[in-house]
């Protein structure tokens, strides 16, 4: 069963797939009349284009004949665990040490009372210390003794342990997500990063990322 949820300071909310994924919007197209009849001589395909078309058709035919994988990987099979975390009261200097020593890009923020309440990235911290807004406009720089809760993302999209990894991969592309915590019964169980997904593709090259 594939499921996602938004976690934050005020609890969590389940997110159905139709809310999570972007839906392409196509405007209505009106019918237009041809300006003049089509001259067959104008659209005669040169012999070299016939050859290229034939080669392309052969390539597509070869791809269609490749063995299809029935492998379905779940989030709990891919996630990194245990997860390094921070508390909302942790200082930014502490977060910086974790990023530097463990080479992470994202660290979930957890509260003993509410569980997962946010997530912070190395980019968030560097931008905050440099005095840059989210739109990269300059303002007064901040000290590194501020609390993590002042710059963490307070709402986090999470996956369940039984979420199909293909849906997560699609979200990473569509929503420009760099990491996704994995939660079970309100408890943080792991985290999936872009590196984790790349490792999946390398190890399971027949995995269909169709989501």
Can you give a write-up of this model?
With 211 residues, this protein is of the alpha+beta class. It has a domain at 4-16 and 71-203: CBS-domain, CATH 3.10.580. The protein is built from seven helices and seven strands. The strands form two sheets. The chain has a five-stranded mixed beta sheet. Strands 3-4 form a two-stranded antiparallel sheet. Strand 1 (4-8) and strand 2 (11-15) form a beta hairpin. The longest helix has 18 residues, at 47-64. The protein is globular.
Largest sheet: 5 strands, mixed
Name the overall outline.
globular
Helix content: 25-40%
Number of E-state strands: 7
Terminal CA distance reads: 14 Å
Provide the CATH architecture of the domain at 4-16 and 71-203. Answer: Roll
CATH superfamily of the domain at 4-16 and 71-203: CBS-domain
* Order of the strands making up the biggest sheet: 2-1-5-6-7
Structural category is alpha+beta
The oligomeric status of these chains comes to: single chain
Give the topology, please:
Layout: E1 4-8, E2 11-15, H1 17-20, H2 47-64, H3 75-78, H4 92-102, E3 106-111, E4 115-121, H5 122-130, E5 155-160, H6 165-174, E6 179-184, E7 187-193, H7 194-203
């Amino acid at each position: 069963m594939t499921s996602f949820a938004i976690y934050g300071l005020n609890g969590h909310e389940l997110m159905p797939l139709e809310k999570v994924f972007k839906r392409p919007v196509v405007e209505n197209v009106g019918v237009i009349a041809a300006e003049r009849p089509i001259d067959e001589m104008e659209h005669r395909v040169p012999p070299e284009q016939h050859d290229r078309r034939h080669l392309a058709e052969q390539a597509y035919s070869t791809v269609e004949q490749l063995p299809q994988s029935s492998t379905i990987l779940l989030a709990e099979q891919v996630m990194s665990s245990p997860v390094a975390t921070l508390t909302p009261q942790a200082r930014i200097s502490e977060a910086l040490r974790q990023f530097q020593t463990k080479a992470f890009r994202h660290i979930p923020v957890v509260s003993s009372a509410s569980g997962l309440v946010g997530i912070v990235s190395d980019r968030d911290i560097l931008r905050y210390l440099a005095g840059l807004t989210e739109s990269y406009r300059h303002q007064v720089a901040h000290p590194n003794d501020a609390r993590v809760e002042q710059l963490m993302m307070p709402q986090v999209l999470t996956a369940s342990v039984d979420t199909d990894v293909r849906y997560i991969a699609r979200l990473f592309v569509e929503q420009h997500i760099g990491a996704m915590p994995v939660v079970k019964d309100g408890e943080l169980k792991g985290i999936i990063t872009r590196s984790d997904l790349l490792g999946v593709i390398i190890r399971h090259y027949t995995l269909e990322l169709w989501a």
